[in-house]
Amino acid sequence: MPPKNTKPAAPRLPPLQKLRVRRPNQAQANPCVGIMTSMLGCWASSGYSAQGCMALEQSLRTCMDQAKPEKQKKNTINYHLMRLYPKIRGARKIDK
Questions:
Q1: In sequence order, which ranges of 2-76 are alpha helices (DSSP H)?
Q2: Are the beta carbons of 37 and 65 closer than 8 angstroms?
Q3: 65 within 8 A of 35, measured Cβ to Cβ
């Protein structure tokens, strides 16, 4: 019969040198890229000053003139992980 007051040992994780989140700030895709690609394709197929490309040029100008969204604040998770990691990891002897 197993002992009554024993708990299974908690799994231990291997030690980490650094604790970081990869790329917390993802760049937003530009909504005008698709229109610009089709306009460049139109120019390549029918020449630079083609009248058929005027509608695409106009839609690209309207897209580019629209107000830009507010800049997002930079994510500070890596700063806080770097600051708090020694407290999580515990005091360790520094090897030289």
A1: 33-46, 54-65
A2: no
A3: no
**What gap in Å lies between CA 12 and CA 52, rounded to an integer?**
66
Burial of 50-65, coded b for 16+ CB within 10 Å and e otherwise, reads eeebeebeeebeeeee
Q: What is the DSSP letter of 75?
A: P
What is the model's pLDDT at position 92? 64
Instruction: State mean pLDDT over 61-90.
Output: 77
- 20, 81 in Cβ contact below 8 A? yes
Contacts by 57-65 with C-beta closer than 8 Å and gap 24+? 59/35, 60/32, 60/35, 60/36, 63/31, 63/32, 63/35, 64/32
